[in-house]
Request: fold
Amino acid sequence: MARHQNRRAFWRAHYQHCREQGMTLKDYAAQEGLTLSVFYGWSKRFRKENLDSNTPSPVGFSRVRVACTSSVQYRLQFPNGLVLEWQGEADSNHLKQLVQALA
Reply:
């Protein structure tokens, strides 16, 4: 039981740090030398726990952070950890439609 708790704490700490850094699971796992498939499995558990908790879900709009990482790469990060990244041109109308579709 203690071994499971240690593993759980290890993966929880990495999951939280990844979210705090605003990185994708893939990039974080590569940076930290973690096995990506295992990290995906644990992150799925942690996300499910957060969804199943007694914390009420926000109603309406949530603040999202949009950052342009270069002239042609974009990253949209939502408070729940969802990250969308794309390359290419993006005009304000397309970005508005994307955010509305995901809200």
